[in-house]
Amino acid sequence: MSSEFYESDVDGDGHADTIEYDQHADGSSDILVDTNHDGVADYEGSDTDGDGRIDYVAADTDHDGTHDVEAWDKNSDGSFDYANVDTNSDGVADYSGNPWGAA
Asked: Region labeled Disordered — which residues (predicted)?
């Protein structure tokens, strides 16, 4: 590979891309999200494993190969599965935020 690959400056601002993409100097790519395209990052995260996803999105804390968000919502209803458990069949999820059961 040529050294030009490592010294690329895609946006032409005079800063090498390898420096721009690791502003925290932690060895991982920084991911900037600008949803309204105003030039200011709305969110900044790191990609330590190089999968192109911000770490909190791609977290796999038990290292089973399944991202935590996918593991916690197996039925894809948008709620973590523990929030839907109703072990006493009273019609109120066990984790409802109401410690006294149904109102």
From this structure: 1-53
